[in-house]
Design brief:
Shape: globular
Number of helices: 0
Low-confidence stretches: none
Number of strands: 10
Strand content: over 45%
Strand order of the largest sheet: 2-10-9-4-5-6
Distance between the termini: 40 Å
Helix content: under 10%
Largest sheet: 6 strands, mixed
Radius of gyration: 13 Å
Mean pLDDT: 97
Order of helices and strands: EEEEEEEEEE
């Protein structure tokens, strides 16, 4: 079965960086697109970034495009979200998603940006 485990979250000051990781198992990771979503308190879950199976094409939502980047390492079944110059509005639970897979969600990792 699909299993996704996010890590790398934490509490940081504005302007700092974090790199989130999501390690996958239970499906052919190398042939599956991956996505990062986030959900802030009281708000809907929103797409942050996506990456195709090969990693050669990526998308990042406009609101964070200049600060975030998605990447993957298919050799270790891991997708990353590099987050730079973090802002308080980035505070959310960040979720990894396996594109088109049933139960293709991780448990989430909390990112808190606060001074």
């Amino acid at each position: 079965q699909v299993q996704l485990v996010e890590s790398g979250g934490g509490t940081v000051q504005p302007g700092k960086s974090l790199r989130l990781s999501c390690t996958a198992s239970g499906f052919d990771f190398s042939r599956n697109g991956m996505r990062w979503y986030r959900q802030a308190p009281g708000k809907e879950r929103e797409l942050v970034a996506s990456i195709i199976s090969s990693g050669t094409s990526t998308y990042v939502v406009d609101s964070v495009r200049d600060r975030f980047a998605i990447s993957r390492d298919n050799a270790i079944n891991t997708v990353y979200l590099q987050m730079n110059n973090l802002k308080p509005d980035d505070t959310a639970v960040y979720y990894c998603n396996a594109w088109g897979r049933e139960n293709g969600w991780g448990q989430g990792t909390q990112v808190t940006v606060s001074s």
